[in-house]
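Structure first, sequence second, as always.
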């Protein structure tokens, strides 16, 4: 029996972010209903946490081979060219994720250096942005793990 690969830290992070979004959104609704006003921080935190959920969830999907792709060409090719295609897919993914990680880290450093504050509640902007290079780096690692598992036959091409 093959065990399905997992990305437990990203799964926990995405779950925690989703729980926090739910709690602060519910708190905002109740506050608005009771007082007629709303909590100022909820939108800023919700948007930030939705980005965390998106990247962490994408990392989990990469590790579990759950991303949507068209496998018609892969299934039609013999083993050698099929593996070359998998490596090409990996190279494309690593290139994009590497660029996102690099430029995300560069942006985080600039926001830290210039001490930029968030427009809503005035927190340091880099607190929000640092998750971009961290989670795209995690996706890069998960992409590599998934590709290795596909090449070695530990993971089937069908999710």
């Amino acid at each position: 029996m093959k065990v399905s690969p997992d990305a437990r830290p990203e799964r926990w992070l995405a779950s925690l972010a989703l729980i926090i979004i739910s709690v602060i959104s519910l708190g905002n609704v109740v506050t608005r209903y009771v007082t007629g006003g709303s909590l100022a921080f909820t939108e800023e935190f919700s948007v930030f946490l939705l980005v965390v959920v998106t990247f962490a969830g994408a990392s989990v999907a990469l590790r579990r081979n759950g991303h949507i792709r068209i496998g018609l060409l892969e299934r039609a090719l013999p083993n050698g060219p099929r593996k070359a295609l998998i490596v090409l897919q990996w190279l494309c993914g690593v290139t994009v994720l590497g660029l996102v990680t690099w430029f995300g880290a560069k942006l985080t450093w600039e926001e830290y250096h210039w001490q930029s504050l968030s427009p809503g509640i005035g927190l340091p902007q880099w607190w929000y942005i640092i998750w971009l290079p961290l989670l795209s780096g995690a996706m890069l690692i998960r992409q590599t793990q998934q590709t290795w598992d596909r090449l070695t036959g530990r993971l089937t091409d069908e999710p």
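Margin note: The two ends are 15 Å apart (CA to CA).
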